[in-house]
Specification:
By secondary structure, this protein is an alpha+beta fold. It has 19 helices and 18 strands. The strands form six sheets. Strands 6-7-8-9 form a four-stranded antiparallel sheet, with helices on one face. A four-stranded antiparallel sheet has the order 10-11-12-13.
Amino acid sequence: MTNGMSCRARDGANINGGFLVGVSPADFGSEHPLAGVEFQRRWEAAAYTLGGGGFRAPAQTVADFLARRPSTALGRIAPTYRPGVTPAELDRCLPGYVADTLRGALPLFDRKLHGFAAPEAGGPPQNWTSTPAPRRRRCSPAWRAAPPPRCASSVGRTFSPPSGAFTPAARGLGTRAGLPARPWTAFGSPRPSLPNKHIFYIKTPFWRIITPEWGLLWSFTISYDTVKVQFCRKVRDFEAMARKKVETNISFDEMRQKYYVCMDYGLDETGKRVKKYKTYPTLAQARRGLRDFQTEQDTHQTVAPRSMTLDQWLEYWMEEVIQPNRAATTIYGYRKIIDNHLSDALGSVPIQKLTPQHLQQYYSMLMRDKGLSANTVRRHHDLLSCALHMALRQDIILRCPTERVEPPRVIPHEARFYTPAELKRLFGLVEGHWLELIVKLAGSLGLRREEICGLRWSSVDFELRKLHIKEARTAAGAEIVQKETKNRSSNRILHMSDDLYRLLRRERARQAERKLALGDAWPDTGMVAVDAKGNPYSPNAVSLAFTRFIQAHHLPKITLHGLRHTFATVASAQGAPLFDIGKALGHSTPATTGKIYTHLLDQNHTATLDRVANALK
């Protein structure tokens, strides 16, 4: 049924009202210019067939429509449509999303206007294709002075409008192109200003009511018994009309009898001003709320609302904070955690809505479902703590959620080291092997594998018998990176023993011979630890080769880093102070040495107790 330009007086017994459900080109199923026409034609044909032909309209009661059952009768409400209506099921002539939208709107609107979803109410589907043409009419003085009418509701009940709610319009609304300079004669003060697109054009004279609470525009013809309802496209336009400014940033809504306080947070990251509104029942409470908000702003206890997700913040943090200030290995580790775990689990959560509960559940999920160790999950916590504390400092969030969670406890690894006798046996077995230089540098000086692989001949002083440890060679995924040492304390100068001095001399001579033999094929890298072709070793390759060497010679299981612990153990057994041991290892403080190498403290503790026991004999 097409409801376009109508010349009816609309003075029947029933309301002529309805809901509008919008459709877009995406619903047409095609990008053809006439797809909308075909869409309309398809559903009008379905309605024609469902009505039984003869231009009879299919109709259904509200109760049957909400229950998804066909109507067999229309109850006590007699339709006025000619040539007649046929009880049916409107789902057969309406798109599914249109029918579902109507089912959701009817109960909602019934709560605002009781009776709109009455069981016996109903009607046929309509296709609104045009707007009634505006007309100009003059009204008699007697009509202007007439009292506000009593109007019929959607179910035929009468109600009296609130005092001052209805105002007569003296003239027509003009054309669609624009409104007259003074379209209203008695609308009250202040006179509202509505955009042209929100005006419902009908014949005049008429009565009009604006309901901010519902966001509806009611229009009443002078017959006093017909109601037209149209949803407003912008409810806020009508709400704002009912609010009157009381003080700066405080307004009063007469319909709701509430005070609105405007919380101005300033400009967001896009330059758009952010405002939030909060309601209060009294003016005193509104003033107190506004004052508290301004105090929080002055003391930096509030932040502007942002739609930024955790993923978006981590991307900014990685690009602007981490990449310029961290080593490649650190960047690689952080990126691996974010891409493999964080983005999927928490990436879509707005950063301002990230709670300690989110993080606690995330830690539990990593350990329970993915089988990660407590130490690995602790690295996730450290990353989040660093990133979110930066967000706190940049006024993105008000509190850091990592401060209110219980991260997994770090489980210290048991240190494995050799005794002096076992170390001597290892040194004997590795003689002549290409691992000899690497093993003796780790066991005699306590060097890290990255420091050994990153050592250059320019850092070897044969005259003074000194090694300057200032570079490291490490792996960031598949990429090998030459960088500075781990920290400032790791940049240190160590003395070479006679054995190391002779070993380094032999290795330098061997590389010189290989360079003469290969000529231009020899890469001039300047590295100490290189293979037969002059290529530097990677730390992972060295560790793997050492593990296989240990297994092949049936030695006690130990890693290449374990030789660093062995060095500290042997030095402690020889009476070296903890400070000197830490300095040789490149630790910043003796506390670091004691924390990492706890077996040294245990060894000293045992020796102390033995001396006390011997003294008491």
